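>> Question from a student workshop board

For tomorrow's exercise we were told to take the sequence and the ligand below, predict the bound structure, and bring the output to class. My setup keeps failing. Could a helper post the expected result so I can at least see what it should look like? The ligand is zinc ion.
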Amino acid sequence: MVSKPHGGKLVNRVADHETKEKIISEQKEYPRVRINHGIAIDLENIAHGLYSPLNGFLTQDEFESVLKTMRLRNDLPWTLPIVLDVQSPHFGEGDTILLHYESFPIARMHVEEIYPYKKTDLALKVFKTDDPAHPGVSRVYSMGDRLIGGSIELLNELPNPFAKYTLRPIETRVLFKEKRWKTIAAFQTRNVPHLGHEYVQKTALTFVDGILINPVLGKKKIGDYTDEAIIKSYEALFNNYYPKYTAVLTAIRYEMRYAGPREAVHHAIMRKNLGATHFIVGRDHAGVGNYYGPYEAWGIFDKFPDLGITPIFVKEVFYCRKCDGMANEKTCPHSDEFRTYLSGTKLRSMLINGESLNNLIRPEVLNAIKGLKNPFVD
Amino acid sequence: MKISIPKTLYEKIKARIEGTDFDSVSEYVTYVVREVLANLEEEKDITLTKEEEDKVKERLKALGYID
Ligand SMILES: [Zn+2]
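>> Workshop helper replied:
Here is what the output should look like for this input. Compare the format with yours to find the bug.
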């Protein structure tokens, strides 16, 4: 059986057509709050059930529970605080407000609570550091001084150049049912695929009915691959090296927090909501710089016997000349002199410098990347 | 919150968690109970009306995910 939604029920907070028309015609009556791109994406993810069981932004009790126990107040595992920040709000508790991104009304929100919070506490608990050089921490420091909790209804979505690939939980669930998949391993990525990724995906696929390759699209750091590069390169891999009946490529729109272990669990919960039964956790999952140990994101899963999705831990993969293929420590007895390790950073510099990538990347994938003006965010 | 368990069971768990990552009997009991409760939950997928499901299928077809 595919995974049931986290908390048992798939949340749907998309306003129906009539409600939406009504709210938009009355929009002048509501206090208006400007939100950023990341919040607009969170709103979509709440509304479509990717963050089930959340039906809005965390209230104070829930926020504190998530920080302290990594669980919601009903004991359900939940590791990332999904919050909406404001600076000097001009409305009060009990009000209904409209959340605007640029000129678009994105959602209506019922303000249940407005509460203060400590930024350093949030940073230390979630990111295990208060270093402003950490991209997630720096985002926290730029937030307003109050959080508002309450339920939302989605009115509009941001333009999505990859709408074709952005399947919602209800859609992936119907898709898995049509494909008659009962066990599904999800693979999260923000990279173009090299043979090491394919090795991991296909190793997992050997033991389940289907693999869901599920890139994260959205705002990235400088030097990351563009959304286009990720999608085009995976299309090339899929068209040439994956059977259609065992593999699916869909994406989620989501802004990375780079919270390492805590975010790895959040990534697993999102894939559980998509219906996946297994989630592949790699080396330094959702990490950045040297803030987290290479396998720290594995240990945190021990705290959640009730997560409802099974993590699959995969050690770093390398190319071994002796084995004549991709391997990892568990499968290859040879020493380092035969091995080529291919980190994201290394592949990036090899691509930029035009170095030979024989045995490391599929030629069709390389061609797809080379066909792009610039595969990196600048 | 305090919950009672038989002393013999307490001793058994205490011996069992020695040298593991569990710091206390409470922690171990919490872990096991969470695991058991999660396994007891009904394995039921979401239910859609035929109309809702057909609408989703149409979109999946249009996007080329299913034939
Ligand atoms: Zn070898």
